[in-house]
Amino acid sequence: MQRRTFIKTSALGSMAFNCGPWITEEKTHILTLSFDDGFKKSFYKVAKIYEEYDQSACFNVIASGHLPGFKQVDDYILPDLMGNFDDWNTLKARGHEVMPHSWKHLNLASQPVEKAKELIVQCLDYFSDHLEGYDNEASVFNFPYNSSTPELEEFVLSKVLALRSRELPREEQTNVFRQGCRSMGPENIDHWVEEQVNSFLRTSGGWLILNVHGLDGEGWGPMSSDYLDRLIKRLSIIKTLDMLPTGKALLKHTNE
Ligand SMILES: [Zn+2]
C-alpha cells in the first residue's frame, strides 16, 4: 500500500489531493520530510544539506526540550541532544520551518483530556513567546507519536492552521487542514525512505509526508547524512517535484 497523505482542498471540493490535476502542470508531486523532536546536531546537519540544494527543511520541536526539567523520552529523546530556541530561531531565519511538536512529548491521547489541552496550549504559548515570527494561524501542530483523539484534534484545529497525526482511512479524510503521516524505526531508515520516495514518484501525483527524526544514529529511525545528501541532491532537480515544509505546502497549494 502506498504510504501517502491525503488532503482535501476547498478549491477541489471533495477531491483528494492525489486524485487528479491538483497543483500546477509543472509541479505534480510534493514531498515533505517532516523531521521531529529537536535534535540539535542532526537539525543543523539537515539544514546544511537542504541549503546546499536551495531547499527548506521542515522541523518540529518539543517546546520544553531545552529546559532543565525536561525528561528523557523512551530510549531516543535525550535531554543532552536537544537544541534550544536560539537554535530554532537561527534555523528559521535561514529559511527553514519550525513547528510545534508538543510541550514535553507525552502521548496526548492517553492523558486526561483537560490535561492534554493544557499541554497543547502551553506548547503553543511558548512558541508564540520564543519563536520569532511564529503565528498560530500559519502553524502545524505535530502530535507526538502521531497519536490523537477526535476531541483533541478539534481543539487543536480551533487554534492552528493544521495538525499532523495518524493517517486516516480515506473516507474519513474530511478536513482540508488535516494531515496524516507514516514513519519507520527504530533502526536506520535509508532504505525505507528510498522505497517510499521512489514508489511515490512513480504515481501520477500527490503529496507524500514522511515523518523522520535525526541523522547518523540520533533519534528513533535515523537516516544517514550521506544518504540524505544524495537524496536531496537527486530530488532537487526533478522539475515536477516541489519539496516543501508542511506549513508552506498548505499555504501555497490551498491558496491556488
Ligand atoms: Zn516525537
Descriptive overview:
Strands 1, 2, 3, 4, 5, 6, 7 and 8 form an eight-stranded parallel β-sheet that branches. The model is unreliable at 1-22 (pLDDT under 50). The chain has 256 residues and is an alpha/beta fold. The chain has helices at 40-52, 85-93, 113-130, 150-157, 190-201, 225-235, 246-254; strands spanning 29-37, 58-61, 97-100, 140-142, 162-166, 178-183, 206-212, 241-243. α1 (40-52) runs parallel beside α6 (225-235) and α3 (113-130) packs parallel to α4 (150-157). The longest helix is centred in the middle third of the chain and has 18 residues, at 113-130. It has seven helices and eight strands. It has a single domain (17-254), classed as Glycoside hydrolase/deacetylase (TIM Barrel). Zinc ion binds at residues 36-37, 101, 105, 144.
Would you summarize the structure shown here?
The protein has 256 residues and is of the alpha/beta class.
Key phrases:
binds zinc ion, alpha/beta, disordered N terminus, TIM Barrel, about 260 residues, about 30% helix, eight-stranded parallel β-sheet, 8 strands
Helix content: 25-40%
Order of helices and strands: EHEHEHEHEEHEHEH
Determine Rg (CA atoms, Å): 17 Å
CATH topology assignment: TIM Barrel
CATH structural class: Alpha Beta
Query: How many domains would you count in the coordinates?
Result: 1
Helix/strand-derived class? alpha/beta
- Overall morphology: globular
**β content, as a range?**
15-25%
Number of helices: 7
CATH 2nd-level architecture: Alpha-Beta Barrel
Sheet with the most strands?
8 strands, parallel
Report low-confidence residues grouped into runs of 5 or more: 1-22
CATH evolutionary superfamily: Glycoside hydrolase/deacetylase
For the terminal residues, how far apart are their CA atoms? Answer: 29 Å
Are any ligands bound, and if so which? zinc ion
Mean pLDDT: 87
Query: Total number of β-strand segments?
Result: 8
